[in-house]
Design a protein that fits this description.
Layout lengths: L2 H51 L6 H33 L5 H30 L1 H12 L1 H16 L6 H8 L3 H10 L2 H31 L4 H15 L2 H11 L2 H21 L5 H25 L6 H29 L3 H31 L21 H6 L26
Length: 424
């Protein structure tokens, strides 16, 4: 399998997510969490079973095609369920441990990777690849089952997860009103979305191929390369602790700048310094990823209103997945086109550096826009009772006469922000 074909299994997963994420943002507000949970659970199950039975096809081409379809369906279910769960968390935890909730959710993926990567190799050696795939399928069934259970719980207790006016508002969303929401999202939101697009695209492309870089360019064994690359996922487990800081003090705009800067420094080290320490690089990138997980998704919530957060989350996930798919595809082409090991990996990391550099510009733009907003939504903490942290409120009030739907967006009063403790 070539580098492009290998990356294609990732690309189809993310590009399916870029489409379904945007649609899920509308569908979850229009048809409810329960119905969307059932749909995403069905897609997850169908994708897993197709991917597992794909290798049984008579030809390699047919097997690859079936596995690609399985990845496509799984990507639809996976990213659709991400949007559904984000909608639930944004209402259940707003005014409480919002950043911690998102950080714990994101860490569950990292924890799964930490457990799976070292153990799958040993299982394959003992039972063979096809048996291992059925074992993974059996474990993966936990996903659609828990998605269904979570949707049922929300169906029963949705009345206490959000205010009544929000329930009434989202039940009357239409295609026209959804497009109106997208049209009225402010510069705050688009800066955060641009950050997600370039940062996540850069980090996914680098993380997926970094073990291969260590094996080809640094002549490391596969096991050693996997252990070193796993430091990034290990460091990302710090996100919940950083989420506590975010819930207590806010400062999401500053955290966005810090995580982009750290990632950029790590990539510049690889590009400009021969033999740059791989462990140090993974430590820097892992810390950057942990900070990003603690601030970015709660940042999307605070720059939107409770009634529009579902659409905004879906659009943000679409940017996230499309960025990952695009940069994975470009990275695969760069590695396939190169013949000299050193030059092709240099070009690959230059691509990542450019992507992260743009994410830093987006983070600085979000910081600037936040400083010009009286209520400073990104700087605010989320552990306040629904506050006036929505960056679109001013525009919504201005356009309420032209768009009756927007006039239903409510505003709240804002509590004073805590100050950071002085460190002597």
């Amino acid at each position: 399998m070539t580098d492009s074909q290998f990356n294609a299994l990732y690309v189809v997963h993310f590009w399916a997510g870029s489409v379904i994420s945007f649609l899920s943002g509308f569908l979850v507000t229009r048809y409810g969490v329960w119905n969307c949970s059932l749909a995403t659970a069905s897609a997850l199950f169908s994708g897993m079973i197709l991917f597992t039975v794909g290798p049984y096809c008579s030809s390699t081409t047919a097997a690859f095609a079936v596995m690609m379809v399985g990845r496509l369906l799984y990507g639809c279910g996976y990213w659709g369920n991400c949007v559904v769960s984000q909608q639930v968390k944004s209402h259940w935890f707003f005014g409480r441990e919002l950043a911690v909730a998102f950080a714990v959710y994101n860490c569950s993926f990292r924890l799964g990777s930490i457990i799976a990567y070292p153990s799958v190799g040993a299982v394959v050696e003992k039972f063979g690849m096809q048996t291992t795939m059925w074992i993974v399928f059996a474990i993966g069934l936990v996903g659609p089952v828990t998605a269904t259970i979570a949707g049922w719980i929300h169906l029963r207790y949705a009345e206490i997860s959000m205010d009544s006016f929000v329930l009434e508002e989202v039940r009357h969303h239409t295609v026209k009103s959804t497009l109106g929401i997208v049209r009225h999202l402010t510069k705050h939101y688009w800066a955060v979305a641009a950050f997600l697009f370039f940062y996540y695209g850069g980090i996914m492309s680098v993380m997926s191929d970094f073990p291969k870089f260590l094996m080809e360019a640094r002549n490391m064994a596969e096991t050693q390369a996997g252990l070193i690359s796993g430091i990034i996922s290990d460091m990302a487990l710090l996100s919940p602790l950083l989420g506590v800081f975010t819930d207590r003090y806010g400062w999401r705009d500053v955290q966005m700048v810090i995580c982009s800067t750290l990632f950029l420094l790590g990539l510049l080290g690889l590009v400009s310094i021969s033999g740059f320490n791989a462990i140090l690089y993974c430590f820097i990138v892992g810390l950057s990823s942990a900070i990003m997980g603690a601030c970015i998704w709660s940042g999307v919530v605070v720059v939107t209103t409770p009634g529009t957060v579902g659409v905004a989350m879906g659009l943000s996930s679409a940017f996230q997945t499309f960025g990952a798919g695009l940069f994975l595809l470009i990275g695969g082409f760069i590695l396939d086109a190169g013949t000299d090991t050193k030059s092709k990996w240099l070009n690959f990391f230059v691509m990542g550096t450019c992507a992260v550099g743009v994410s830093l510009i987006a983070a600085l733009a979000a910081w600037y826009l936040d400083s010009k907003t009286p209520h400073r939504p990104l700087r605010s903490r989320s552990s306040v009772k629904p506050s006036l942290v929505s960056a679109e409120d001013t525009m919504a009030r201005r356009d309420s006469e032209r768009d009756p739907f927007i006039s239903n967006i409510s505003s709240y009063s804002c509590e004073p922000e805590p100050t950071l403790p002085l460190i002597l």
